[in-house]
Write a structure and sequence with these properties.
145 residues; two-stranded antiparallel sheet; globular; 6% strand
Length: 145
Amino acid sequence: MAVSSKVRYGLTALVYIAARHNENSKGISAVEIARENDISLKYLEQIMVTLRKDGVLTALRGISGGYKLARPASEITLTEILKSLDGIACMTSAECSCTVWESINDFVCKSFDNVVTDFTDNVTLRDIASNYLNEAVTMTQGQWI
């Protein structure tokens, strides 16, 4: 499955924030996220604006400025993130002039969408960040699994 760079970088930024998230901590700057994850700052800022507008992130101003999760990571689903970042899309009937392809595309996309939504509705940002942290600990112990 192909994932757009917008989804890849947005999810990377969210996992980075979630892994360092603390209710009392200051925000994490886009500069830090971009630097630590080798993402273009200009592109990342566009992604962060989208995530903020869709209620996934909050932006903090001032000396403790940066980004924080708008809600606990356990309440942010992968579905919400993908919808915010326009991650999954099927060809619409208007884009296709072949009736056979329309039928195939509609069936495959509807089936795929149902399976993906069932999965992504049950995966939270906390799940993804926890997996990342577990792998990072294993890697630092010299036992990459």
